[in-house]
Write a structure and sequence with these properties.
The protein has helices at residues 16-32, 89-102, 118-130; strands spanning 47-48, 58-62, 68-71, 85-87, 107-112, 134-137, 140-141. The radius of gyration is 27 Å and the shape is elongated. By secondary structure, the chain is an alpha/beta fold. The protein has three helices and seven strands.
């Protein structure tokens, strides 16, 4: 004589397998994504309404104390954890000339604090122009509520 088992269906839905899948996806995306560290230098950029399509890899920072820092290759995976290096203006010229010699199409971004003396920024831009280096002055976008003053 064959005995039949009575199967009872559960009226509840188990979320344990779903949480396991979500947890594994979260770990997967955390491990495979790249971590981008912002520059360690506090620079208050001036505002601008214009944008450029250049994506510079080399970055030059001038902080409020007019100290100059350089990050030679932001996309190089070996330098992602390195901090910007403080340099003098003469050393900056030599480093940028070396970068220009290796890749003449590379652009350099200049991040100068808004309180930095205008002449100091012009000296850096002039040094780059003499070495035929493409330099982009970085700014942040104007907020919509900012009104422009006539000159």
């Amino acid at each position: 004589m064959a005995l039949k088992k009575n199967f009872q269906s559960l009226e509840t839905f188990s979320m344990s397998s779903m949480t396991d899948v979500i947890f594994l996806l979260l770990i997967f995306f955390m491990v495979t994504s790249t971590i981008i560290f912002p520059a360690a230098i506090d620079v208050n950029l001036p505002e601008s309404s214009e944008q450029t399509s250049l994506k510079p890899v080399t970055e030059v920072y001038v902080d409020a104390d007019e100290k100059i820092y350089i990050v030679e290759d932001r996309n190089d995976s070996t330098h992602l954890l390195s901090a910007p290096v403080e340099v003098e203006l003469s050393d900056l010229s030599a480093r940028l000339a070396k970068i220009q010699a290796s890749d003449s199409t590379r652009a350099v971004a200049l991040y100068a604090d808004s309180v930095v003396n205008y002449g100091h920024v012009v000296n850096i831009l002039d040094m780059a122009a003499k070495n035929k280096i493409k330099m982009v002055l970085a700014t942040h976008a104007k907020s919509p509520d900012t009104t422009t003053q006539p000159l």
